[in-house]
Amino acid sequence: MDINVLIGGEAGQGVQSMGYILAKTMAKAGYYVFANQDYESRVRGGHNFFQIRVSDRRVNAVGSQLDLIIALNEETLRRHQTALGPQGVVIAEQIDDQMLPEIPIITVPFESLAHQETGRTIMGNTVALGAALGLFHFEFAILATVLEETFLRKSSKVANLNVRAARCGYDYIKKFQGENRANIVLTPKEAISEMIINGVEAVALGALAAGCKFMSGYPMTPSTGIMQFFAGKAGECNVVFEQAI
Asked: Which CA distances in Å does 49 have to 73, 108, 245?
């Protein structure tokens, strides 16, 4: 089993969070994952995407053909439609049928479903995640667990709302788009003793393992995450972090 998923949208639409949650969910289900994030240096707008490869064997790169595109805006399809494989599927909020007439697109009203279920359109990205996993006949309980682990640090209410939003998207695909579901079934496998780690965490952990005891820097993407990691581990690892001003 080897599939490639791309999530695309603007900065501020939660593309990075979606990618992280999807990768963690797949790992918890016993699959190997490799992810690549591409984003512009801006808080809102622009084009960001997060590509994830999911496999039952170790993988060290993303694939060249996509099995699923989760498009949070039309620009995502304009940029990535040529990478869609012959059996690939698109899940999108609302796309002009005349724009891409030959691409199989399943329309899911992410934001309106989110507002209907939680009162918050911002959770449309979580609805999209639920829809994607519903498309793959995935076990919803695993996604729910990851959402709870991710959002409980904010509050139990936020965690619960995200689970409800994901379930809404999951059920929408099963109920209204059954005839268009992908021919891919992702069933849980035996858990693997692997950790999910991104490049920022790898750099920081490498420095700590090498004996680094002091770090100072100014928060500027993409090094901000390294500083945040150091600051968060200061007490546990007996290190000093000082933000430059």
From this structure: 11, 19, 31
Structure tokens at 120: 């918050």
Are 30 and 191 a contacting pair, CB within 8 Å?
A: yes
Q: How many whole angstroms separate alpha carbon 51 and alpha carbon 73?
A: 16
pLDDT digits (tens, 9 = 90+) for 37-46: 877 666 666 7
Short-list 112, 13, 171, CA closest to 163: 171
Nearest to 33 by CA among 209, 182, 186, 145: 186
**Strand 214-217 versus strand 105-107 pairing type:** unpaired
Owner of token pair 């869609």: 84
Look at strands 214-217 and 45-55 and give their pairing.
unpaired
Using CA atoms, how far residue 155 sits from 111, 149, 162, 211, in Å, is 22, 11, 11, 35
Residue 121: is it exposed, middle or buried by C-beta count within 10 angstroms (0-12/13-18/19+)? middle
Interval 46-81: pLDDT, tens:
788 899 999 989 988 888 899 999 999 888 888 888
- For domain 2-180, which CATH number applies: 2.160.10.10, 3.30.300.30, 3.40.50.11190, 3.40.920.10? 3.40.920.10
Domain boundaries, the chain: 2-180, 199-243
User: How many Cβ atoms from other residues are within 10 Å of residue 228's Cβ?
Assistant: 14
Name the residue among 203, 163, 202, 185 with its Cα closest to residue 21.
Answer: 163
